[in-house]
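Section handout, structural biology tutorial.
Before the tutorial, make sure you can parse a SMILES string by hand: atoms, branches in parentheses, ring closures as digits. In the record below the ligand is zinc ion, and the chain has 186 residues. In the tutorial you will relate the predicted structure tokens back to the input. Do not try to memorize them.
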Amino acid sequence: MFKVKPFIKLVILFQLSILLACAQPQKKETKSIESKIKSNMLSKPNNPYYSNTDTTKLVLEDSVWKRILPNDVYEVSRNADTERPFTGKYWNTEEKGTYYCAACGNKLFKSDAKFSSSCGWPSFFEQENKQSVVYKTDNTYGMERIEALCGRCNGHLGHLFDDGPPPTGKRYCMNSIVLDFVPEVK
Ligand SMILES: [Zn+2]
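Predicted structure of the complex:
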């Protein structure tokens, strides 16, 4: 009798502690995702310049970009690197929502303008507004291409081609790593 009771107590305590340990982080995560979707905004504690609403031009020293961006984002955004095709997060997604610049938060594309392209990078036929994306002639690698850059931070996003679908005939060929996606509120 005396031996059984403490054992049961121990089992109950053990189960309770597992339940608490499992329940707490899950609850936290669900809450933060919900609040992000509700506010339709993201925040990046390491990047104080990041904003989904501020459209003021952002000019920062390279050393600052290096400090506030993750290395893979920095290499594409500031050094015009290209991610390998079929490896990014968004090349094959169709979810409804909005795409923002991962470096500064500028609104770039609506999912309505995304189309399924076999090139292995997320492709859009239209930018969100006139200021979203700006262009520069790119003559690297012996090709003449149009480089597409973020209209707020001037960070490299990808290239613009003329082989897209109607109504624009444009193909914004983007790197997933420099895009943030916020799903539409249902
Ligand atoms: Zn940007």
